[in-house]
Amino acid sequence: MIDVKDLTKIYRLGSVEVPALCGVTFHIDIGEAVAIMGQSGSGKSTLMNILGCLDLPTSGQYFLDGEDVSKKNDDQLAAIRNKKIGFVFQQFNLLPRATVLRNVELPLQYLTNGDGRLRKEHHEQAMVILEAVGLGDRIKHRPTELSGGQQQRVAIARALVNEPAIILADEPTGNLDSHTGAEIMQLLLKLNQDRNLTLVIVTHDPSIAAQTQRIIHLRDGLIDEGFQPVQQAAGGSQP
Question: Which helix (H) or strand (E) holds 153?
Fold first, then answer.
């Protein structure tokens, strides 16, 4: 599903070069749930932007579903994002005056015939996704009428409505209390298992990362091969 080979990213500030990624290589299988961790400045946000086709690497290759996207232009990247990638952010990024249903339908506007009206099947698709995330009875509500956890569920439904192959979640529980954050993680992992979605989560929280199948830990723009995750046991962490 995801193949990253010798990926580098260098930002130029005048005559100064600032390396963010320094040669990163890894593979993520279809249906795998993976966490990306690292301290501030480690390169994890830069890597997330490249995986999400929001930015291009300076060098190296990024294959998504067998397609080399590392040399695509802006229009091609936008088409790939809309077709293959669903985003979930720490900030819910919902339209406050739009209903829950309307927020979820927004990505489907690209599939209209040009008259701005959704086909019936797309409208029904949004309804099905909202039922799947437990919000079938909230479709006429607006974000300000929902709890933080419910708003994040709307954001997850919006990410799923185009039936993407991969979900990229950037600190998806960062704005939630621990109980609600745990519910959102359970939902993401259930969707990962039930729909065989590839799930990539950027997080600084070891307890969130420990729930995924694998952790990619970055340090100074490189994968930290010596990183040892804390093992979680039922009832608490192990020494």
Answer: helix 148-160
Q: What is the pLDDT of residues 134-148, one digit of tens each?
A: 999 999 999 999 999
In the beta sheet, which residues pair with residue 210? none
Task: Provide the CA 84 distance to its chain's centre, in angstroms.
Answer: 11
Closest by CA position to 103, among listed 95, 91, 115, 93: 95
| DSSP letters for 10-51 | EEEETTEEEEEEEEEEEEE-TT-EEEEE--TTSSHHHHHHHH
- Amino acid letter, residue 211: Q
d(CA 66, CA 124): 31
Q: Are 90 and 62 in contact (CB under 8 A)?
A: no
pTM for this structure? 0.88
Residue position matching structure tokens 């229009």 = 75
- pLDDT per residue as tens digits for the range 77-109: 999 998 899 999 989 999 999 999 999 998 887
Q: Which CATH class is domain 2-226?
A: alpha beta
Two tokens at 237?
Answer: 């962490």
111: its two tokens: 């599939």
Q: How far apart are CA 212 and CA 185, in angstroms?
A: 10
